[in-house]
């Protein structure tokens, strides 16, 4: 990330670049749908993205960081047609699969960003404009020496907070206990945010019924790990 305006964020990235070959279906989805649904962060013109023009309507913008293979994302977008839903992901096959899933579900309120969400937020999203940001099951980097690579760090949370509209939410979920505690600590220390469920035991949010159970959660349950949700809102 070579952004001169935000040099302090250079150590914080929203992804680990992964390779992978696409299936025939995923490749078809790229060819048929990407020109309309997708943009590449590194190729965006300078300045903020005009989401109203891109979606063809004015509506609250929800950004999901790390949509993976798109199973949850496609369902969430389909279930909230009132939102302009933006998914940021770096894994090419994952974006292809998300487009296939969206096509199958008839989703029309979804747009895709290929690239680093930190660069997207820093350079191409106006402050105070997002209705929400979702970060579900980010890479946990479980080894202690790798904890500094986790995306939820003070600088990243401050960036998220600056882009949220008043009352906008930052919703996180993880099945790694220590990472959940780190998320809680870092977000609680951000003065622009408040924990919507600070009065609940531990400060954890109740698991929303609308969030689909992911493969990560299913595996975590088998391995005896408890998933935690955290929902902070912009003051």
Question: What separation lies between the terminal Cα atoms?
Answer: 29 Å
Q: Which geometry do the CA atoms define? A: globular
User: What oligomeric state do these chains adopt?
Assistant: single chain
Q: Biggest β-sheet: count, sense, barrel?
A: 8 strands, mixed
Total helical elements: 8
Helical content class: 25-40%
Q: How does the helix and strand content classify structurally?
A: alpha/beta
Sheet with most strands: strand arrangement: 1-4-3-2-5-6-8-7
Strand content: 15-25%
| Strand segment count | 8
Low-confidence stretches: 1-19
* Rg on CA atoms, Å: 17 Å
Folded structure, characterized:
It catalyses: guanosine(46) in tRNA + S-adenosyl-L-methionine = N(7)-methylguanosine(46) in tRNA + S-adenosyl-L-homocysteine. S-adenosyl-L-methionine binds at residues 64, 89, 116, 139. The structure is a single chain. Mean pLDDT is 92; it is low at 1-19. The protein is an alpha/beta fold and 235 residues long. It is globular, with a radius of gyration of 17 Å. The protein is built from eight helices and eight strands, in the order H-E-H-E-H-E-H-E-H-E-H-E-H-E-H-E. Helices cover 34% and strands 20% of the residues. Strand 3 (84-89), helix 4 and strand 4 (110-114) form a beta-alpha-beta unit.
């Amino acid at each position: 990330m070579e952004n001169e305006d935000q040099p302090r964020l250079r150590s914080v990235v929203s992804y680990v670049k992964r390779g992978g070959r696409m299936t025939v279906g995923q490749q078809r989805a790229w060819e048929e749908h990407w020109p309309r649904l997708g943009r590449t962060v590194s190729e965006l013109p300078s300045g903020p993205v005009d989401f109203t023009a891109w979606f063809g309507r004015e509506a609250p913008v929800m950004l999901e960081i790390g949509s993976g293979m798109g199973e949850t994302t496609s369902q969430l977008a389909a279930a909230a047609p009132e939102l302009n839903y933006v998914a940021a992901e770096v894994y090419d096959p994952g974006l292809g699969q998300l487009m296939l899933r969206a096509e199958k579900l008839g989703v029309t309120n979804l747009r895709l960003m290929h690239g680093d969400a930190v660069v997207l937020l820093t350079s191409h999203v106006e402050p105070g404009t997002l209705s929400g940001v979702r970060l579900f099951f980010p890479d946990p980097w479980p080894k202690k020496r790798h904890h500094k690579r986790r995306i939820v760090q003070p600088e990243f949370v401050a960036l998220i907070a600056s882009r949220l509209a008043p009352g906008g939410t930052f919703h996180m979920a993880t099945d790694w206990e220590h990472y959940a505690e780190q998320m809680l600590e870092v977000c609680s220390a951000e003065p622009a945010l408040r924990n919507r469920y600070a009065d609940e035991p531990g400060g954890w949010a109740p698991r929303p019924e609308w969030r689909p159970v992911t493969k990560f959660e299913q595996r975590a349950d088998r391995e005896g790990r408890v998933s935690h949700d955290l929902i902070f809102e912009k003051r």
